[in-house]
Write the structure tokens for this entry.
Amino acid sequence: MRASLIQIDVNPDESINSRRRRVGSLIREQRGSDLVVLPELWTVGAFAYERFADEAESLAGAPAGTPVGATVREMSDAARETGVWLHAGSVPERGADGTLYNTSLVFSPDGELVRSYRKIHRFGFDRGEAVLMGAGSQLVTVPLPELTLGLATCYDLRFPELFRGLVDAGAHAFVVPAGWPERRRAHWTLLARARAVENQAYVLACGTAGTHAGVEQAGHSIVVDPWGEVLAEAGAGEEVLTVSLDPARVAETREVFPALKDRVL
């Protein structure tokens, strides 16, 4: 299984419409991949709090008469034209009652929005995202033909119980879009490897590059295998990271070292 992570430079001098079109073009360049992954809040920037409300989008399945957002349309077209499973990172979503959410989107190769995940753990310590956006409450998995993805977003990476729940729901790989700050980059790498090792699952963690809202981004998107080995890691700038995943590796790891069978709690 071939997976491509697109580490996007969220440049504040680039308009959102321009970035949306550019990212659509980058996705279309990944023909031959089975799965393409984008970062968290790449349209606006994860720390550009003042833009969340203005750029919030509605999703397919919203109440009748509600226009579907431009990002949803562009990502649907890109997935269909490229023939890939697309984890389109996350967007600010406006729910039916007006509540904002940090919502990840997954499209099938025919362009259908098959899953959405509202971020459960909001970052900010009573500021920013933590007060501007509502919290999700549902664990979300996506069954692909070869393996099942478990969805998490950025700050979720610090909460191992979420990942245990995803394993119990059948996840073989975790997809984690993020807008992770450079000043905590060591935690990013450490936590991605920890979640892989303790759950014996792949971790595909895709971050942003550049600086937005004054916060330098870590970049360094990373793919970790179920034994904790780093298969590939990006640098600090915009980059496409492409790796081959062996779906059988998860079952093999869990059989050779069956630690999950010894769980008590």
About this structure: The mean pLDDT is 95. The domain at 2-262 is CATH 3.60.110.10 (Nitrilase/N-carbamoyl-D-aminoacid amidohydrolase). The longest strand covers residues 85-94.
